[in-house]
Amino acid sequence: MARLTVDATKNGVILEAHGDVLAMTGWEPDELAGQDITVVIPYKHREQHLAAFNRYATTGRKRAMGSWMPVECLHKSGELVPVMFVVTELGGILQAIMEVADMEASNDDDA
Which residues does 44 contact at the CB level (< 8 Å), separation at least 6? Predict the structure, then answer.
């Protein structure tokens, strides 16, 4: 499991990274600190993410908070890593928690 702490008041700057961040993203935790959260968001999803982030920052509207969602994480190498992702919030600080998605379980469901 990896956890990114993001400052919502500073347009998504990563404050801290913990856990299996290196294995999941290819980034050392200290490399991620100070980076924009979009560094781990695939290019094809960045516009949607930025729109949701701006909506949250301007209105406080929390559409995706607290629910686990299957998404892709952009690895430093450029590869896409399927993960399960949840966001929680406390006073303008966001916790993004990611776990590598269990692709075998997903494939078993298709059998």
Answer: none
User: Per the structure block, which two tokens stand in for 69?
Assistant: 């969602």
All domains of the chain in start order, with CATH = 2-110 (3.30.450.20)
pLDDT one digit per residue (tens) for the chain, 111 residues? 888 888 776 778 898 998 889 888 999 999 999 998 889 999 998 888 888 777 777 877 766 678 888 889 999 999 999 998 888 887 767 778 888 876 444 444 444
Judge whether 80 and 74 are in contact, CB under 8 Å: yes
Q: Whose CA is closest to 9, among 77, 67, 79, 93?
A: 93
Lookup result for tokens 């399927």: 82
How far the first Cα of the chain sits from its last, in Å, is 27
